[in-house]
Amino acid sequence: LEYKTLTVEQIINQFQKELEKDAILYKEEARRVTEYDAILRDTQRDVQNLTEQTHRAIFQQQEVEKTLIGIDALQEELDRTIEGLETNLDEVFSATQNLPPAEADRQREQTYAT
Length: 114
Description:
Elements: H1 8-96, H2 101-113
């Protein structure tokens, strides 16, 4: 715009109009920035909560894994015990197979008495 042809009053009025437009645009932009800032704060809070929940879940998963490892060890020990008992029982039945029933009963009673 050429200022040479305008009076001082016209120049000031034009600056005033431009300043008012810029002020309105600035307020609108400030409002948008405030909204984005609120969204970012909410998102940051959500991310922080999610991170805490994830850490808790990982810790709980580790605890469950430790418990499962302990259960697995107990299961293996029980399996070995049962296998040993089955072997002993097979041996007892094999040893008593050819004996008359009275003798087998007596041996079984002796076995379970100890």
